[in-house]
């Protein structure tokens, strides 16, 4: 039996307290105390998403010459286009699609909320061909009983083609690919394309912007572009050389010679003695290689060894 996290057990207790409080006003105070117990802080799991080449490889796996392959390709492409949850895709019917004029889809999401997402022309073509093959109640229908897939069936379809795609794209083998991974991929790729965060929030059906902001934090490509845009032409210091303004800081701290008990000087080294005022931190840049901090005592002195003598 798999052990559950303490936060999972606490969430269950919170739900029970809420249930009791809604049906027994006498216990409201007790329920409030129980629900006030905080969750244990844990490290957040990094969000997984696919790069463009990985997503293209996944979409190329279904054999579109067969009816089942055409359905699976349309399903994968629809998940990528709309960022829909597996449950939303499983319930999608032809009545939810607008394939003419301005193509769009109306999704029934969490909390009985509806949202509308635009569709790419390639998605419209794939869906139109799928329904042209024969009538089907939902997008995920097409098995021998013509019954729609459940969200678990859609998960199996995604993982099956991800395993096939990993043979041509080795990086996929190290990733856990699921319908929700494709949803994350949609958000990250929209963000890279310059779509504003509030539009992505509405696209995915998030209630709060805080939920959508996590995609801006995980995308390393955008972070690299932001770093590359920083102007560093004024940084002319070479590794191993002390910038002049750092020398000025050091010279201003030169003070009295500390007691001999504080000295920690290696043989053959000269030294400078600097007074470090109480409650003050002096941060030396890591590229100042010729200085070695031998002793730091707040309120007294720092001994900084500097190069061989003579």
Summarize it:
The protein is an alpha+beta fold and 310 residues long.
Describe the structure using short key phrases.
310 residues; alpha+beta; hpI Integrase, Chain A; 3 domains; three-stranded antiparallel beta sheet; 13 helices; 11% strand; disordered C terminus
Descriptive overview:
- The protein has 310 residues and is of the alpha+beta class.
- It folds into 3 domains: 6-35, no CATH class; 52-226, hpI Integrase, Chain A, CATH 1.10.443; 244-308, no CATH class.
- 43% of the residues lie in helices and 11% in strands.
- The chain is built from 13 helices and 6 strands.
- The strands form 2 sheets. The chain has a 3-stranded antiparallel β-sheet with strand order 1-2-3, with no helix packed on it. Strands 4-6-5 form a 3-stranded antiparallel β-sheet, with no helix packed on it.
Poorly predicted residue ranges: 242-310
CATH class of the largest domain: Mainly Alpha
Within CATH, the superfamily of the largest domain carries the name Intergrase catalytic core
N to C succession of SSEs: HHHHHEEEHHHHHHHHEEE
The shape, in one word, is: globular
What is the average per-residue confidence, as pLDDT, rounded to a whole number?
Answer: 77
Rg: 31 Å
The helix fraction, in percent, is 40-55%
Number of distinct beta strands: 6
Number of helices: 13
Structural class: alpha+beta
Per DSSP, what share of the residues sits in E-state strands of 2 or more residues? 5-15%
Indicate the CATH topology of the largest domain: hpI Integrase, Chain A
